[in-house]
């Protein structure tokens, strides 16, 4: 696998001769790497018993030994990465050629190099066996994706998005680094086994502090509200197949980090986790889910809308993770409910990777044919790009958590875990869980509204601009990339029971208890049942996605028969009735108009602002031109970030006023600081 | 886990619901006409309308894409599938599990999603307006419905409607607690919204001031429109069936031929009671302005939340 990615990276050197050659060879190498990853991870996940693959890396540093350890959890995330990487690498070359044919060999080389580095870093991050390689890959992943974010265009917008991304993630990484360094200092070594031993001696408050430091680092990367502000800017800026990787996979790497820290490295030996962890994550997850989808609703930029939906879906995953943390090792639960919650979270991880990857690739197809990201300038694309439209619709149904596709399955499991949790925690904490269920339901409904808008405005109706009117279907390789993910969405939706087998290894590795298939598919792979997961007298629920799909298939011919009518007669097509005026694209509902009622319903959250400028000719009744501008604000941005920014500016002004430029003044400061530091920290050495 | 309700009965119930759906609409229309001191059309009028539509040809907007023709098929199939998840004449889980209340709500949402997508396809402002309004109201209704289901489900640890109905049984009606009353109140608030009736929507018109659902059907015609109409009749009876299964699981418990007959009779009675409720509400209130609907639904939300809180505390 490493060889493939390395080969891909070296393929960038081919750019010296030809950008196109580098592009193709680099992506083929990355594809080979992804397929290898798929085989390796499936081999580990389906092995019985689950093997742990350990690789000792050559000693690069005198002070640490680097190693790769692939256990159940690592293998599962490896699988998720590889699944999306396969699609992205099939899709990539044609997309980059079509999107920016003018790009020189140098840019192509950089893109290929960064893509391969990015993929390799994610893979090795998930299989890192020590703190040093974890941090190195973490940095490599950030830097490579930064290069990809700024590589696409040369305008200032992307550069600014990239800068914000760098600042935010590095602030997060700093927190993560502190947590790691404290642990490695106690352990005296870098490998995870030693860290685990070191952590087992910690007391609860130290453990919790370390966890929250790491959580800030991971939450920044995952785009959890309120640390999400970089995400809707950086993800759309990257080339679309990289956006698919960033949204579908890179955020999951942060989830991997949270799971690795929470359930493995920092977990106490036999007791339950400190209760603050799970509840914090549950609340953070719920907030992210609701706010993510609410802000997504008001976006007109297709890729930005999708990026906000990533915030939402990370929230849904975190609800499951939080519940699992709360319920783990509680005696009254008996271990199965935590497994159910973690299963829901992990299943949503792969589900989100599949449909979000699909949607980003779909958005990329539109982008490379129309060069427009604003939905208001699109419309009517379903006629010219039927394959893209159909696959995008499939992804839209999946992400809206509607049966019979995969999004529904993981949300159903989350709901069942919530139901079990609520029945155990009576009182206020139970109410928190139930309210998060209600908000999760709200999230699902809003996501459906959002994707009716996204699909309808982009693909249906009349084309609003010439860009949309002259779009053509994308080449076969791009469709193949999308179709691969669409097949995943359908399979994971119709036969989720078979995927539970893959979830056994990670759930057992994390929870040391029951595996996913023992709990969820106890009645055979066709039935999802929670009878064994719920405690006490609760009856549990069983559904069968396969049976439902069969029922739908059986009903389709009946409905089709009725649709044909009793007396089949030819179809007449006529212009749409527009109250007597000749129909133009101006009659189509726009994205802004579609989302307006919800904008008003949630006005206190959006704080919408609008201005209408009228240009009249002579009489106020003759309007020559109307200019409408409206926008909504991101509360986190205005309420937190602008204030922080203001504070920093004020502070630096104050400091500037005191910096006189004279060297003895500075020496005085340094001396004073040293004196203070000795006073405060020097005491213990005596 | 798996029960003994044969798959034949499940399918039979589903087709029964689909066939009886228009009758409920006809009954409500007749009742409304009587309230307005009119004679009104017969209760079989919706069937006549359906046959008339199925006999007609199709006129389609020239801007519509290839999806448009399949929308009625998908919507109808999805709604019919939702009908298979409601216990009608017999409670208890089916021999092979199919779906639960969450799946039922999911299927209804899928039907709504597809309808809204179809509405945007023709490129007229009416369809867009209908879709936009419908997709504004739906996300506010769904969570509350979900909370009502949860409030009932929490007591028994399952969201499977058949088991819920069986567990509660006929005598359960005598032991209603405060949580049940509140949950039922929330359900009563939600019923007109979910079935697309006054005070949330007006099924009799597609005037742009009042319509939600009708606006979305405007561009459909002939058999396609017939399918959409049949789907909305089915949706109505399924929603009523959901309410009946959650709150009046009377009569549908016993097995055997007599039990089935008893179940059928009691089901008809329950549906009629709820239909009378809808007709009375529709005759005595005016349609709310769109932006007052969230406040109306807020009443349901508060009831559902209180019901859940009482169940948990």
Spans of chain B with pLDDT under 50 lasting ≥5 residues?
A: none
Which outline of chain A best applies? globular
- Beginning-to-end CA distance, first to last residue of chain B: 29 Å
What is the H-and-E element order of chain B? HHEHHHHHHHHH
The tally of helices of chain B reads 11
Q: How many discrete structural domains of chain B?
A: 1
* Protein structure class of chain A: mainly alpha
Overall average residue pLDDT of chain A: 87
Please state how the strands of the largest beta sheet of chain A are arranged side by side: 1-2
Whole-number radius of gyration of chain B?
19 Å
Continuous helix count of chain A: 26
Helix content of chain B: 55-70%
Characterise this structure.
The complex is a heterodimer of chains A (686) and B (313). Chain A has 686 residues and is mainly alpha-helical. Among the domains of chain A are: 355-556, no CATH class; 637-681, no CATH class. Chain A has helices spanning 2-11, 19-46, 72-99, 105-126, 131-151, 156-187, 192-200, 204-222, 231-237, 240-265, 275-297, 302-327, 336-370, 381-384, 386-399, 406-424, 427-459, 466-469, 476-494, 496-511, 516-520, 545-564, 591-601, 603-606, 635-658, 663-681, and strands at 53-56, 67-70, 528-529, 542-543, 572-574, 609-617, 619-631. In chain A, the strands form three sheets. A two-stranded antiparallel ribbon of chain A has the order 1-2. A two-stranded antiparallel ribbon of chain A has the order 3-4. Chain A has a two-stranded antiparallel ribbon with strand order 6-7. The longest helix of chain A has 35 residues, at 336-370. Chain A is globular and about 90 Å long. With 313 residues, chain B is mainly α. Chain B has one domain. Helix content of chain B is 68%, strand content 1%. Chain B contains eleven helices and one strand, in the order ααβααααααααα. Chain B is globular and about 55 Å long. At the A-B interface, helix 15, helix 16, helix 17, strand 4 and helix 22 of A face strand 1, helix 3, helix 4, helix 5 and helix 9 of B. Strand 5 of chain A pairs parallel with strand 1 of chain B, so a sheet runs across the interface.
């Amino acid at each position: 696998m490493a060889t493939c990615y390395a080969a891909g990276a070296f393929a960038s050197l081919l750019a010296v001769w030809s950008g196109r050659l580098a592009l193709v060879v680099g992506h083929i190498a990355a594809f080979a790497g992804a397929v290898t990853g798929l085989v390796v991870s499936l081999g580990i996940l389906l092995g019985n018993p689950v093997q742990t693959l350990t690789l000792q890396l050559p000693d690069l540093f005198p002070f640490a030994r680097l190693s790769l350890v692939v256990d159940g959890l690592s293998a599962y995330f490896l699988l998720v990465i590889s699944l999306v990487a396969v699609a992205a690498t099939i899709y990539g070359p044609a997309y980059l050629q079509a999107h920016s044919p003018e790009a020189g060999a140098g840019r192509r080389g950089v893109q290929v190099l960064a893509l391969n580095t990015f993929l390799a870093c994610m893979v090795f991050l998930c299989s890192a066996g020590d703190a040093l390689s974890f941090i190195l890959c973490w940095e490599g992943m950030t830097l490579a994706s930064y290069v990809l974010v700024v590589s696409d265009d040369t305008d200032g917008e992307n550069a600014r998005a990239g800068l914000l991304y760098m600042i935010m993630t590095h602030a997060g990484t700093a927190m993560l680094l502190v947590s790691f360094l404290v642990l490695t200092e106690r352990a005296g070594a870098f490998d995870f086994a030693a860290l685990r031993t070191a952590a087992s001696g910690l007391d609860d408050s130290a453990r919790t502090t370390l966890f929250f430091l790491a959580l800030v680092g991971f939450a920044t990367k995952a785009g959890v509200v309120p640390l999400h502000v970089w995400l809707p800017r950086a993800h759309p800026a990257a080339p679309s197949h990289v956006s698919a990787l960033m949204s579908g996979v890179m955020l999951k790497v942060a989830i991997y980090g949270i799971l690795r820290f929470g359930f493995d490295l920092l977990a106490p030996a036999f007791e339950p986790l400190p209760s603050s962890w799970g509840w914090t994550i549950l609340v953070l997850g719920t907030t992210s889910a609701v706010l993510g989808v609410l802000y997504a609703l008001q976006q007109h930029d297709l890729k930005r809308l999708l990026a906000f939906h990533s915030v939402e879906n990370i929230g849904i995953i975190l609800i499951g993770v939080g519940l699992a943390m709360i319920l783990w090792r509680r005696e009254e639960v008996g271990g199965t409910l935590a497994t159910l919650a973690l299963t829901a979270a992990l299943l949503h991880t792969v589900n989100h990777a599949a449909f979000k990857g699909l949607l980003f690739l779909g958005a990329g197809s539109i982008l490379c044919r129309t060069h427009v990201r604003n939905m208001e300038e699109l419309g009517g694309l379903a006629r010219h790009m039927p394959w893209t439209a159909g696959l995008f619709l499939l992804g839209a149904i999946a992400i809206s958590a509607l049966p019979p596709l995969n999004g529904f399955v993981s949300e159903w499991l989350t709901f069942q875990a919530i139901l079990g949790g609520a029945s155990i925690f009576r009182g206020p904490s139970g109410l928190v869980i139930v309210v998060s269920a209600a908000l999760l339901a709200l999230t699902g409904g809003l996501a459906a509204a959002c994707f009716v808008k996204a699909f309808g405005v982009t693909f249906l109706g009349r084309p609003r601009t010439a860009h949309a009117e002259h779009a053509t279907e994308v080449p076969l390789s791009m469709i193949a990339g999308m179709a691969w993910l669409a097949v995943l969405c359908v399979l994971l939706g119709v036969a989720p029971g078979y995927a539970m087998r893959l979830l056994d290894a990670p759930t057992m590795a994390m929870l040391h208890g029951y595996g996913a298939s023992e709990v969820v598919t106890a009645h055979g792979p066709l039935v999802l049942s929670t009878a064994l997961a719920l405690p006490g007298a609760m009856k549990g629920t069983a559904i069968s996605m396969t049976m439902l799909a069969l029922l739908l298939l059986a009903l389709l011919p009946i409905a089709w028969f009725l649709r044909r009518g009793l007396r089949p007669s030819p179809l007449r097509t006529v212009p749409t009735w527009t109250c007597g005026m000749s129909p133009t694209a101006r009659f189509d509902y726009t994205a802004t108009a579609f989302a307006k009622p919800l904008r008003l319903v949630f006005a206190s959250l959006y704080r919408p602002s609008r201005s209408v400028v009228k240009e009249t000719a002579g009489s106020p009744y003759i309007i020559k031109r109307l200019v409408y501008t409206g926008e909504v604000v991101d509360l986190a941005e205005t309420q937190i970030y602008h204030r922080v920014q203001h504070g920093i500016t004020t502070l630096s002004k104050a400091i500037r006023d005191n910096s006189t430029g004279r060297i003895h003044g500075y020496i005085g400061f340094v001396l004073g600081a040293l004196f203070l530091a000795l006073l405060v920290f020097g005491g213990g050495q005596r | 886990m798996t029960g003994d309700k044969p798959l034949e009965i499940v399918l039979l119930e589903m087709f029964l619901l689909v066939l009886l759906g228009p009758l409920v609409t006809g009954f409500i229309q007749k009742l409304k006409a009587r309230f307005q001191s009119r004679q009104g059309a017969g209760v079989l009028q919706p069937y006549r309308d359906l046959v008339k539509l199925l006999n007609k040809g199709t006129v389609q907007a020239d801007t519509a894409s290839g999806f448009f023709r399949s929308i009625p098929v998908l919507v109808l199939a999805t709604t019919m599938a939702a009908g298979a998840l409601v216990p009608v004449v017999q409670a208890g889980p089916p021999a092979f599990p199919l779906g639960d209340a969450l799946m039922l709500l999911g299927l209804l949402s899928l039907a709504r999603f597809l309808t809204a997508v179809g509405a945007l396809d023709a490129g007229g402002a009416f369809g867009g307006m209908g879709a936009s309004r419908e997709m504004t109201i739906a996300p506010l209704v769904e969570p509350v419905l979900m909370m009502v289901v949860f409030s009932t489900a929490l007591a028994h640890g399952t969201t499977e409607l058949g088991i819920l109905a069986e567990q509660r049984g006929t005598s359960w009606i005598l032991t209603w607690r405060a949580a049940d009353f509140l949950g039922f109140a929330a359900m009563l608030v939600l019923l007109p919204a979910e079935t697309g009736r006054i005070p949330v929507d007006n099924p009799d018109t597609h005037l742009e001031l009042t319509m939600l659902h009708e606006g979305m059907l405007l561009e459909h015609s002939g058999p396609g429109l017939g399918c959409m109409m049949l789907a909305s009749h089915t949706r109505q009876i399924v929603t009523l069936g959901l309410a009946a299964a959650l709150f009046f699981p009377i009569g549908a418990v016993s097995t055997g031929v007599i039990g089935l007959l008893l179940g059928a009779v009691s089901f008809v009675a329950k549906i009629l009671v709820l239909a009378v409720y809808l007709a009375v509400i529709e005759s005595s209130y005016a349609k709310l302005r769109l932006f007052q609907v969230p406040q109306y639904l807020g009443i349901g939300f508060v009831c559902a939340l209180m019901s859940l809180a009482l169940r948990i505390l």
